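Friendly challenge for the regulars: who can give me the structure tokens for this chain first? No prize, just bragging rights.
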Amino acid sequence: LRADLADAVAAAKDPKRVATPIGSLRIVPVGDGFGYRLEGGAGFRAPWPVLPVDGGNLAPFTLSVGIRPEQLTGADRIVTATAGALSFTLGLGTDASPDVAIAMPDVPQLVIPSGAPGLAPGQRYLVSVSVEPRPGGLSVRWFIDGRQISETTTSLLLPPLATDGSAVVGGSPGFVAVI
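First reply, four minutes later:
Bragging rights claimed.
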């Protein structure tokens, strides 16, 4: 994404592929680039699939967010990505361990914490969660600033997936951060 919310690679193939702002999204300088200031429910929605699906199966992926929290409470939803009825929600907070929640119909939501402490306000982080489907379940690895901090294996089996999906970044009223 560039400062105009367009996915440059996808837009080359489909000019209508532009993210939709939620609330009052502000672009701010971050180092030599830019970031989005999320506050008061601001964020954006990418109305195209971001989770990789190959032949109806989820493919391995890593979700990374560069973030400088200013006011986060609990594990606030930062990113939710969907593929069909499956959703992955990344939660970050200053007083809760980063976590990822996996939800699908007819199955209780599974929350996998990173085991890391909450994020310190005003400090910049790169938080990444890697999900690898395996026979018999999923492997979830957590990284902060490029260093692996935990790995969890779960027996959650995923159903066949549709290739439709979307992603929402921010959009929750409970936090203030720059991503």
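The CA atoms of residues 94 and 171 lie 18 Å apart. The first helix runs from residue 8 to 13. Your move, everyone else.
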